[in-house]
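Fold it.
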Amino acid sequence: MSDVIENYHAAVRYVESFSNTSLRKNFGSDKKDPSFFLNRTQYFLDLLNNPEKGFSYIHITGTAGKGTVSHMLQKVLAASGKRTGLFTSPYVTTTIEKIRVDELYIDPQELINLVEYLRPFILKAQGGPFGGPSAFEIFFAVALLYFKKQKCEWVVLEVGLGGRYDATNVIANPIVTAITNIDYDHTEILGNTLKEIATDKAGIIKPGSRFFTSEQRPALLNIFKGICKEMKVDFYAIGRQAGYSSYNRELVTAIAKSVGISEECIEKGISNLKLPCRFEMMLEKPTVILDGAHNRAKIRSTVSNIEKLSFKKLYLIVAIADSKKDHQAILEPLLSMQYPMHIVFTQVKTNERKSVAASLLMSLSKKFKRRDAVLEVVEDAYDALDYVLNMATKDDLAVVTGSFFLAGELRKKWFSEEWVLRHRKSFY
């Protein structure tokens, strides 16, 4: 297995050596049409004889909850006996987590083989009209080829970023498209207003599909309704729910019923769902929770979940990815909680998973922290975790949050990357 793991890391490094630059508003100095990115993806898939064709798709986007909803839907479809592939991003601990069929991630050796198979096609694309594919597009192609090999009937696709110009939006005839909700995230790419962001994400809606959303704001729902009306797409909006998890469950239930899944299979799929780093408890006494919340909407969910727990003192270990621009939107809800609080700011510096300086987060937080809150910097993430575990008593709560990368990195303390690669799953 050690040789496989070494070759696996080499294959991943090769793919990640390709640029993953995202679409920026007013793309290019010549205001080039941003559909360039979709054309590039489609050209690459055409070279591969169109592995995207032949599946029944459910296509999911949204600011928060899209990963959870995608995983739930894949579980529900698999519970009903349908062979189902799942493509998501980002991963928690290691790259194979992006690609799953039924209960297992892609075998590391399969990923190695498929990346090797793609090399000549990547070279050919580099000489074509759109240039070589991005790392995301290559992993997307790996997933599609794997789903073909595994004879999947259904594929659940989680959008990487936005919707309209995301690589996954090359699929032509999804059965269902869905938007969980809309909030401010990736504003430098998707737009500065909720309406701009909603319009970009609504780009996944296609004629002939059914559209579902758990968004609640009338102005945004009207955008979705207008697009659905124009495309003659059936529109379904989930009613108001008590909390974030309820919105996800109701959205999954509505989508699953629309494609003929029984209530028994729906309940089986939803009730058995466990996801790494989604408010995941790793330890008791003290309670340690890993939560990959990394934008305003997700942090609100984290705060809501913390408020449901009983504890004496709250410890937070916080990092924020360097791709995030509005740090205050993540920090302020955390610092506004009314608990005895000790916050340790830290950093992640592995490969492409880099975060902003912990000292910057500390400086920003001083502007609006409560007087009794303790703020510290511990540069190394593992040192920060050990530091908190040494301080916390059995009645305290420690939450790792602010960055999916941070939560995923520290999860290795309990589930190593080698363990995940060997077992092709995230839990014992």
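The first strand starts at residue 56 and ends at 61.
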